Amino acid sequence: MNKKGFTLIELVLYIGITAIILTASLSLAWSVIFNQTKTTALIETNYNYQFLDNFLREQIQSAQSINLTQSVLGTNPSRLVLNNPDSSITIFETEDKTITQNGQDFVLTNIKVTLPNTAPLSLITNKIDFKNFVINYSEINRQIISDISLEYLNSSQDIHYGASKDWTNSTSLRAE
Q1: Has residue 115 been placed in a domain?
Q2: Terminus-to-terminus CA distance in the chain, angstroms?
Q3: For 7-58, what is the HEC assignment?
Q4: Structural domain total, the chain
Q5: Cystine design at 133: which of 37, 43, 44, 77 (Cβ 3.0–4.6 Å)?
Q6: How far is CA 141 from CA 31, 133, 137, 138, in A?
Q7: Would 2 be classed as within a structural domain?
């Protein structure tokens, strides 16, 4: 007997196996895509955290003192004014900025620094929202305590696209 073609049972079996393989493949592909997006958000947030943390720490450690009359401490947002050894000042403060992403406008809070003889510089990227900036000062041990929160811009509010970083630092003024 010469059999050419498939029987109905073989056809249903092949379609079922193909459907199972495609479903598993699509599930794996979506998982990879979401993980890549989440990783991108985490990397961006951690990069901004690391840069800001290092820059703030460096400026505080090289400052002579904190300018208590011009600084706004203990509130969100705070304003930090440092007196430098050369009699200049360094200012850390927040500002709101509007950016457009996917045709939608977002108002983000940014932190900027004004160094001696320079225009204000933004310290975080346009993909990060500065949620919390509280500075406190301990005169006893000359420590500046910063409580900071960053959040990745998540225009869709999807959990796969979100990332945030909260931290508290204590840095001593070193110069006398």
Answers
A1: yes
A2: 101
A3: CHHHHHHHHHHHHHHHHHHHHHHHHHHHHHHHHHHHHHHHHHHHHHHHHHHH
A4: 1
A5: 77
A6: 50, 21, 9, 6
A7: no
Residue range(s) defining the domain that contains residue 110? 8-172
The answer as to whether 105 is a domain residue is: yes
pLDDT tens digits for the chain (176 residues)? 566 767 888 888 999 999 999 998 898 888 887 788 888 888 999 999 999 999 999 999 999 999 999 999 998 999 999 999 999 999 999 999 888 877 888 888 889 999 998 899 999 888 898 899 999 999 888 899 999 999 998 877 777 778 889 999 899 887 55
Residue 1 placed within a domain: no
